[in-house]
Amino acid sequence: MRPKTIDEIVGQQHLVGQNKIIYRMVKAKRLTSMILYGPPGIGKTSIASAIAGSTEFAFRQLNAAIDGKKELKIVAEEAKMSGTVVLLLDEIHRLDKTKQDFLLPMLESGKIVLIGATTENPYISISPAIRSRTEIFELHSLDPKDISQALNRALSDTKNGLKKYNVSLTEDARKLLITRSNGDLRNALNGLELAVLSSSSSDDESGKTVIDVPIIEESIQKHNISADKNGDSHYNLLSAFQKSIRGSDTDAALHYLARLILSGDLISIIRRLTVIVFEDIGLANPQAWVHTMAAIEAAEKVGFPEARIPLSNAVIELCLSPKSNASLTAIDSAINDIQNNQTGDIPNHIKDAHYNGAEKLGNGVGYLYPHDFDNDFVAQAYLPDKLSDAKYFHPKGNGKFETALKNQYQKLKELQRKGRH
Fold first, then answer.
1. Does residue 120 lie in a domain region?
2. Among 151, 165, 348, 375, who pairs with 362 as Cys (CB 3.0-4.6 Å)?
3. Buried b / exposed e across 198-231, counting CB within 10 Å, b at 16+?
């Protein structure tokens, strides 16, 4: 059922639709090397095959993880003898330097049009040398209409599809198949094929074999939304999880938490919650720190599936809690000053004076011990002279605790200012 021409491709219309970039390249027969990246089963190989079919160029397929320089040489020789070859190189993120160095001159000459396919972000996982010689196109999971269209083609195609089996797919079974595929057309077609081939008896008066919900449930696996814990899609999922909590969208956060739970990656969930409670909630609600750490400890003790319960408690509280990143911006601002050589000498009166000879150097001389004064406070300089007016902490006053901190901070800053002048 793989498309033979660019017009037969299902989905990815932002690239292959009429007058879109790949469509225009094919129609003009002016191909350039490219990298296609996105989740599995969404058309990377199909697009490469269709490009070759639409342009009548020879099409070869290799895998960067398995095939070696020997196989690349064979493709290169073919390109030298017969003209341009479209080479689909699957898992291009695993291309080693030896194979890369062999390929680069072929890409420069145009003898090989490379179409690299990867599920990983090429800006992270692919070498700059390859990236600079290719266009990078992101593919997206197929929507239900695309999957349904492909299923119709498979059921109505006599030569390459399943029409000869005379089957009828119920509407509920179709919906389940589309839902379970989660935008992965290969997964949907594999499930449909298994359902048809394992159901040979006629179930209705027309003589057709009916494919219903129970058959589809047995024929297609539940899609593991984030099976690759090191893949780009998994990091996108973690990013969406944190940003939904930061944005106080409880339902979105629970959605992404559910996807992470189904991936089985408890460690990543715990790490991300630990960051969130200090980065995004911060001083606005210190009680959230206590509750989140308790939820994390409980989740670690019980493991999945029960861990989902304390994790859900923590996520809901974090979403509905007041937010503040004042402590994050404060330390980052201080680090930025130091990285830009804004340091200066530590004032002598607060230098270490616990050794013989320290007083001769002026260390500790003039230091005022705060506990000897009313309210355990006395104004004196603590920052280096060149940074005496530095102000890193900018409390927002989100929540009662941070409001109290803000008032106290401003009061103490004013007392320090008056004490210095």
1. yes
2. 348
3. ebeeeeeeeeebbbbeebbeebbeebebbeeeeb
Angle at 108 between CA 106 and CA 109, to 5 degrees: 65
pLDDT digits (tens, 9 = 90+) for 242-281: 999 999 999 999 999 999 998 888 889 999 999 999 999 9
Q: Give the per-residue pLDDT at 204.
A: 55
Residues 337 and 398 grouped into a single domain: yes
* Number of domains observed in the structure of the chain: 4
Give the model confidence (pLDDT) of 308-318 as tens digits: 999 999 999 99
DSSP 2-25: --SSGGG--S-HHHHSTTSHHHHH
pLDDT, tens digit, for every residue of 273-293? 999 999 999 999 999 999 999
User: Does position 227 have pLDDT exceeding 50, yes or no?
Assistant: no
Nearest CA-CA partner of 15 in 142, 130, 154: 142
Can you give the length of the chain in residues? 421
C-alpha dihedral (290, 291, 294, 298), degrees to nearest 10:
-170
Q: Tell me which DSSP letter residue 280 carries.
A: I
CA distances for 175 relative to 3, 178, 216, 401, angstroms = 23, 5, 10, 50
Q: Residue 375 maps to which CATH number?
A: 1.10.3710.10
Q: Which residues form the domain of 267?
A: 232-320
Report pLDDT digits (tens) over 65-112. 888 888 999 998 888 887 788 899 998 988 888 888 888 888 888 888
**Cα 113 to Cα 135: distance, rounded to the nearest angstrom:** 11
